[in-house]
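Progress report, Aim 2. The chain analyzed during this reporting quarter is listed below.
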Amino acid sequence: MNDYDIDFYGIVPKFSFGNTGSIQPFFVYAFSDDASLGAKAYKWPYYYEEIGPSGVVDYTDFEEINLVTPGFDLDLNFDPVSLWMTGIYQFGAVDFQDGTDADVGAWLSAAGATANFDAFDIHDQASQNAPGYKKITNTVAYNLGVGFKATTDLSFKLDLWYAHLVEEIEAGLDKELGSEIDLSVTCKLMKGLKLDLVGAYLFAGNSTTRDVANHENPYEIGAQLSLSF
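Predicted structure tokens for the chain:
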């Protein structure tokens, strides 16, 4: 460790309830005496909204960092239904080289469920978080999806997402971030070789596009080949 590192200490125990589930609390402490180099490496723009003429965060303004992050993961299994829940809270302070400082406060709560019926599964989740950014103070997201295992080597997954803000970030913009549709296909080509195909399309809301005229909705198409042995 040296003064320019961002160092972490963590405790992550896990307690099981037999076949019923488990709970995993965790505690992480991050600190640095001079985070100007470490923050650039980790790309932490959400702690300090200082945008230069080029539109890039000036990470070298960081100095001392002290951040605490407690949380938990809870998993429960009531075959054929499984439930999960996650809670995270982060607090602390950041000092800058110009002598100013800022308090950090961010949190996340999320929960979901999955029901498995042989070749089909239905899953959903909801999450709410305040990422600690100066303008975006609270976001909520909902997900509903279905999976289908056509054969032992071929499966499909379709997900629908909707996200919105709790508070508007600019006057005149609605709180909608947008709706997204995701489709994934997983194919086992041979033993140890798997192909994943993914497609996603976002119907962007005003708080994503900032109501820019003639904006185009973003989309993504991807493929991943995995080899295991």
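Residues 36-42 form the longest helix (7 residues). The chain has two helices and twelve strands. These observations will guide the mutagenesis work planned for the next reporting period.
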